[in-house]
Amino acid sequence: MSFIEDLIARKVFNNRGEETIEVDVVTTSGFGRASAPAGKSRGKAEVMYYSQGGVDAAIKKIEDFIAPELAGLNADSQEEIDETLHELDGCSKNFKNIGGNVAFAISLANAEAAANSHGLFLFQFLGGNSATSLPYPLGNCISGGQHAYGKSPDIQEYLAFPHGAETFIEAVTANAQIHKKIGDFLKKKSGTFNGGKSDEGAWIANIDTVDAFDVMAKACEEVGNELDFECGFGLDVAASSLWNEKEGKYVYANEGVKRDSGDQLEFMKELIEKYHLAYVEDPFHEDDFKSFAELTRRAKNCLICGDDLFTTNTERLNNGIRINAGNAIIIKVNQIGTLSDAVKAIETAQRHGYVPVVSHRSGDTCDWHIAHLAVAYRCPVVKIGVMEGTRIAKLNELVRIEHFLGNRAKMADLKIR
Ligand code: PGA
Ligand code: ZN
To answer: Once rounded to an integer, what is the mean pLDDT over residues 227-251?
Structure first.
């Protein structure tokens, strides 16, 4: 047992220079710290990050109201801590009273403090002795959509996916080499390319939505040949950002094309077939469960993943499960608020054969807890990025976990359906 003695909250900054909240949880025998990330292309159904007054008001609320209520509770009982956070919030559906990012930072800092109190790493504390498999990293190489500027591709993310790697460090090596190669290709291809990168460390270039596919395919193939294992790739279409509700069309501004839902379905299917895509996230807008189900039925050997569609929300996931919409789910703890809520989504996904993909946010800190969550809860894929400090913090933590596990470490069992 380890009892909470105090919570210390402070304002820190994310990689965009935005203010965010960091919380320390001090227990009778340990300490944990976590800071909250922030999304740019957020799902409508995500919880609210802060209540009125932003980070400053949140700090005051933690000091005056939340810390005294949590003091004395057993940090080992994560569910009790998370339930208490819901109660202190007045059980609103979206954490509008204490703020989802406040709940996130307390929840994760508490888990870390409990692990630390027992002298364990977080992945060991949460996952036990048999948590020994490492996830495959999806790595963002080209940014478009809301994550880029100018005449960039309409699709938000082109993601390297080295799913043939035999170790995590090999997979990270592949992603780094693919990213570098793409930079070299873009330099040759686009006269205006100046080496600019997005928040997630992916390249920003004035190239066509479709040209970007050829660049990705060539880089992945070459690196796959050099390293002698399969390097595929995938996408985050982030289609809610393309969807124009009034017109009932997906607007590809760069490409100069508009697609209705039927066209979008055909387009996605063609891309999956032509480029052997192993992963497609949010191919349709966040309320179109039906098209997700249709694409899942028709696409072969590809994870069809819901991010804005599910927002780590078990109720929304269950809506998807009922009609087989997608076969994978993005897990972003701050979309739902607490670790226990996210674990519920992960476990529901796993029971129904959905692949949980633990993910960073475009606005992030050097917090590395998602590395531990992926290993602890046996999530076979992580979405972390390739370059940029806040991504490297998480990748290197997974490298450390693999190193620590030594010959007990193995890659996750991932079947791409
Ligand atoms: P974010 O988007 O900007 O909301 O973090 C990333 C994503 O859509 O996966
Ligand atoms: Zn997404």
So the answer is: 97
Q: What is the pLDDT of residue 404?
A: 98
CATH homologous superfamily of 4-119 equals: Enolase-like, N-terminal domain (3.30.390.10)
All CATH 3.20.20.120 domain ranges of the chain, comma separated, are 133-411
Q: Which two tokens stand for residue 37?
A: 């990330």
| pLDDT at res. 82 | 98
Domain with CATH 3.30.390.10 in the chain: 4-119
pLDDT-above-90 percentage for the chain: 97
- Section 305-315 average pLDDT: 98
Domain 133-411 is found in CATH 3.20.20.120: yes
pLDDT at 150: 84
Per-residue DSSP letters for 305-358? Answer: EESTTTTT-HHHHHHHHHTT--SEEEE-HHHHSSHHHHHHHHHHHHHTTPEEEE
The per-residue pLDDT for 417 is 67
Closest listed residue to residue 316, CA positions, set 42, 37, 43: 43
CA distance 152 to 213: 13
> Ligand 1 centroid vs 116 CA: distance in angstroms?
30
For ligand 1, pick from 15, 18, 40 the residue to mutate: most ligand atoms within 8 Å of CB.
40
Q: How confident is residue 42, by pLDDT bands cut at 50, 70 and 90?
A: very high
- What average pLDDT does this structure show over 264-277? 98
What pLDDT, on the 0 to 100 scale, is given for residue 189? 87
Cβ atoms of 37 and 365 closer than 8 Å:
yes
Question: Out of 332, 344, 383, 394, which one is annotated catalytic?
Answer: 332
The answer, yes or no, to whether any atom of ligand 1 lies below 6 A from the CB of 22, is no
- Looking at residue 416, its pLDDT comes to 81
Percent of the chain with pLDDT over 70: 100
Query: What sign has the CA pseudo-torsion 148, 176, 34, 357?
Result: positive
SS (H, E, C) 123-177: HHHHHCCCCCEECEEEEEEEECHHHCCCCCCCCCEEEEECCCCCCHHHHHHHHHH
| Ligand 1 midpoint to CA 74 (Å) | 34
Name which of 67, 60, 84 is nearest 24 in CA terms.
Answer: 67
258 - beta bridge partners? 251
pTM: 0.98
